[in-house]
Each structure stands twice: as structure tokens, then as C-alpha cells.
Amino acid sequence: MTTSLARTADELRNLYAPGADRAVVMTMGALHEGHAANIRAARARLSPLGQLVVTVYVNPLQFGPGEDFDRYPRTLEADLALAGRAGADIVFAPSDAEMYPDGRPRVTVTAGPMGAGYEGASRPGHFDGMLTVVAKLLHLTRPDYATFGEKDAQQLALVRRMVRDLDFPVEIVPVPTLRDEDGLARSSRNRYLSPAERTTALALSRALFAARDTPGGPDERRAAARTVLDAAAAADPPLALDYLALVDPAGFTEAGAGFTGEAVMAVAARVGTTRLIDNVRIALGGAA
């Protein structure tokens, strides 16, 4: 299918078909099959005449000092091709000047206590920047549906909360994590890994699957995951654990000993200079 490229909000609006329903998939580019799964999920929500917008924007607000903003891959031509194959009608790829014409915005969205732990503690300000750009892109694209991958579990929880608390007229559609055959979750940052580093990084998914498949409550699940991660910490190259958490996805607070229902086990770690995250959903206390 033919995919149109819009660089400005005016160009984007001029491409909209009157009365068509619309979905958006927000990305920072460097698209891979995980993004394609999100695009296909969004396409499936639309009517035959609906329009699907994929945004490609490396948002400076969500990168902290020393993070990989400058080296984050920018592959717009390849992104256009993949987005088109997956079903996108429009790719919106604005510049910094288009998104933030006055420089860093003075009014932003804050994640509050729900964004303070885990990724928020490791990357101060990240979620404020993420929610601010998501809010702007929701206003610019005006979708009926927006898909977000479950791999970024805390991000998904915060976007859902923002949409609920601030009354955005959009349905947030979660899309399951796509994995390579070896279990590694698809990520644009995987390309940074050397072969040896990738082997070590497989401990993330192995730890999560061990926790998912171990009988018992929260303590037993955490212990199963830590056994795998402790072994990876002694590998060559080693895995440096940032956090391992078993949380209630509604508020992203720790699941206590008596927790029942669906929980999320989330992990973040560095292998070499690359920081990776992953998670799985775990039913506790006989939850289906």
C-alpha cells in the first residue's frame, strides 16, 4: 500500500479523510517486527476505510543525561517501508522544531507517584517526557485507538492512567510482546548487543519464564527469577541487574505476599553499555 509521509501538523491534517476512524502507533523509529505487530493490531481495530498513523519521533524529553539519545538509530526510509508493509496509511515524522517550537516546553505532564519507581527511579524524568509527548501526539493525531506494546509495562500502565485521569477520548489497546526464537524481547536497542552480550541478555527472558512457571506466591516467583539473574551476573560478559519487581499492574506497586490476581514481573538490566527491559504477566493465587 502507498504510505504518505507528513512532517508537520498541517501536512498531517491535510491527509485525513473526513469521517474516517483513526488509529495511531507511536514509535521512536528503528522499526522492527515488534512495531509491525503493533501496526497490524491497530489496523485490525479499524473499519475498512479507517486511517492508520504511525508516528516516528525520537523524543528528547524522555532521555536523561548520559543516555543514548545521540546514538539512538534513526532509519526513516526503512521505517517508511516497514510501516507501509504492516498497514500504515500515514507516517508522521516531525522535527524537534515542529514538536517543541519554543524549545523545552514549560508545561508538561507529570507521572506522579506511579512513575517514581522502577523505570522512573532508574531514569528520572523519563516518564514525564514520555507522557508529555504522548499527550501531544494524541492531540495531533486525534485517534480513536492507540496501541502500545506490553514490553514497556510501566509505560503502558501510565498511559492508561493518563488517558483515564485526563479524559482523552481514545481507547488504549495493549499488544503482546514479540520475541525472537531464542526468547529475547524485540527492541530497537538489541542491535547494540555483540553476540556474546546477546547470549548473556537471554537471562532476562529465562528469569521471567522461570518465575512464571514456578508454583507458589510472590516470594517463590521472585526467588526463581533471581536464581537465573544471579548466574548471569557471573557470566562473561556479566549482566548488571537494575531491578526485578513483581507488581500490581493497576498502580505499579509491589505485589505483597497475599496478592492474588494478575501481576507483572518486570526486569531491567545492562549488558555491556546496553540497557534492556522485559516483563511477563503472572497469575497468582489461582487467578486465571
Essential attributes:
six-stranded parallel β-sheet; 288 residues; 10 strands; alpha/beta; four-stranded antiparallel β-sheet; globular
Provide a descriptive summary of the structure in words.
- The chain is of the alpha/beta class.
- 35% of the residues lie in helices and 22% in strands.
- The strands form 2 sheets. Strands 1-4-3-2-5-6 form a 6-stranded parallel β-sheet, with helices on both faces. A 4-stranded antiparallel β-sheet has the order 8-7-9-10, with helices on one face.
- β9 and β10 form a beta hairpin.
- The longest helix is centred in the last third of the chain and has 19 residues, at 195-213.
- The chain is globular and about 55 Å long.
- The N and C termini lie far apart (40 Å).
